[in-house]
Input
Amino acid sequence: MALLIGGCALAPLCAQPVVSSVSPSPNANGAALGANVSADFSTNMAQPGAGEFRLFSKSRGWVGGGIQASGNTITLDPTVDLFPSEELQAILTGDVQDAQANPMGTPYSWQFRAAAVNRAASFGSINNQYNGLAGNGEGVIVTADFNGDGFTDIFDGQYGAQDKVFLGNGQGGFTAVNVGGSSNNCYAAAAGDFDEDGDMDLVVSGYGQQDRVFFNNGSGSFTTSINIGTGSEETMSMNVADIDGDGHLDIVAVTGGISASADAIYLGDGQGGFTSTVIEIYPGTNVATTSNAWDVALGDMDGDGDIDIVTAEFSLTFADSSRIFWNDGHGGFDLQNMTAYAVPMQAICLDVGDIDNDGDTDIVLGTNDNSNVQAGYTYFYFNDGTGNFNATSTTAIELTWTVKLADFDGDGDLDLLFGEPGSGSRVGFNNGAGQFAQAQSLGSAASNYFYGVGDVDNDGDLDVVNHQWLFLNGGSPASIEVTFGGNTLTDGDTVPVAYNTTLSSLAPAVSVTDLDQDTVDINLSVTGNPNIDPGQWQLAGGQTPFNLTPTTGVFDQGGVTHDFTLSASDGINTTTFTFHVVVSGGAQPSMSVSENGNAIADGSAATAGRDFGSRDITAGAGTALSIELANSGAANLDITSVTLAGGAAGEFILDTSSMAGSVTPGNATAFTIAFDPSTVGVKTAQVEIQHNDPGLANPFSFEIKGEGTVAPAIVVKVSGATTVSGGAISFSSFTVGSTAPAPQVVTIENHGSGDLQVGTPVLSGAGFTLDTSGFNGVVSPGGSTSFQVLFSATSTGNYNAAIEFTHDDSAATNPFVLNVTGQVVDPVADSGGSGSGSGGCVGVAGGSDWHSILLLMLVMAALAVCKGARRKRA
Output
């Protein structure tokens, strides 16, 4: 039997949950801005506790969001979408548990970058636009959002001058805030939310001075600080990440300088406190190894889910190799667990990231230009995924003080910024496979040592910053400033004005600037049709900076709010500025809309006369409908426009030629609409009326409708002869017992352009029957249908009947009627003599036609013969 401790059998041991995959993938260079962050495990997982699954952004600090465990997946859904191009570290602490309460034990973390706007990169330089200091060019640039307004700010730390944070407004404008004393000798800095209060703090080195952590008060001011380290360090570079996997930020500071010294690791507690450790010579000794490191980068170099330390080493003896210190999974590092780069060199800067897009972390390293073998090159170390590297190099270049990996053109791979003290600074563009065949120079302005990267102008791509210059990627968006009524407005402001206030009395002014001095188009859109001249607010191709001072207009619509939106475009970026003018009450128009005395409501469907019914598409326009606009208010009603909208607007004819543009109180004006369909089907459109009645929707709109048709034309023929409704069908008489006259055929032809609908013929009256076996109730244009009329009487007499059928030819009598007549007579009979006598004389049968006359004559002749025979016998 296995011994149970805490619910786990000692033999076999309980399996710890293991991360099997993560999303976004490690080292991803273009994570979707709306992406969730998730990890899949080897087993079903419990809901993480507070602080067990965290996401840190180098641009804005800790990223909040909802965390949910479902099956074997844990997902973090960020409250706010990822920012373009930001670098992030996701952290699963060792306290994360599976559904059976088994903890991970060993933390797991990975790094990735959010996608940037995909467009060709092009850098323009702007001199001293953020009031950078003209120091000796040594120091550091750090970009982050320090005041939480969503825009990139700049920490400018200079050697021998005042350190400052420049708070950006997202349009390239900045407000400076001092950090620390007037001369910090800043040589290294990094940003992170060390006290986890929701803002980005700073850790700053003073070369030969005390390293300090400055805590942000939330507004971008740094009013408190603490010292870290011994105060004797010569810190050359700093970097920030959670290296021990406890969910709190740590600081790695390399302090070699010219003389070898111990590097420092400061493990954060999440409350602004730190525990100092070192990279040990041997594990567990707490004896620090020394180095001549000038730069440090942090990344998972062997893909094992923890953050390793990579250093760039430099010494005057040309003996040091740059190094990778492998993390033991809990933030421990020692000299025995280290790999030196393959080739000794004089390295002074480096960065890490997935350069060749194969999913692992590569290294780029810049070296000093001297006579040492292979010095003066930029080297790329391509990872095979397990922490083994193959080195390649570029051609020799000048001394490189900065290398920065970032996706400047938004194509999903990491480009490279080279920072050089001469004029050779440039951006090399990655072809996706880690090759940088194309490059763009930053120009003669790019002569500083140190550079930072961030979206300074808030346009979704990465810009470049040094101590004195901004290099704006893709240009800079224009800036709009509006003054109105003596006040400088901010975007979204509301301005109250009195009824009938003239625009000139408010002295509006629009100032348009652009950091790179592009030409700018500015346009205005405004609601409520104010009585102004829009052209005075607009300019095409204006050379920045420029001002507009509109003067024409009066706010004569009481109780109306006019929304003014200005948009300025330099052909790449567009800036908008909106303000609202609220006009106080005054004399106002009051518009009513009607047709033939029937009121029309805004948004109403087509009823009454606005439903034009059906009309033949060949008939031309029908009778026009008059729409009346009456003004029952106390001010003029201005009708700016009447238009037809909708897909079938062209099927109607709008005539506003007699309509007045302004209607005085108590009067009315009108326009007409006619239906003139060109195709078959139901046609609807909207009538839209632009006006100045503040009590009605603007535009005022209503529906009109009609149906385009094609007309049939009925022609009726009886036995081939055309007839009209009321025409006759006559049958010849016949004797009882003889064969009836032949049936007569009624043919219905369609001589029109639309289908003819015909109802089944109905017979009323005796003596006749209909044969409709071949009858079709739908007759296409040019077609016909027919039925037969049969004289079916069997006894003598005169017969009369009527046949009716309906149809849809509106031009013909409906129903169509045909009158049917016919006669049946008795045959001639042998009576045996005249009267009651005998002797073979023929009697006369009844009858009134010529047959009867003939029979009478025969009878008379027979009588004469009979009389002669009697005389002879006598």
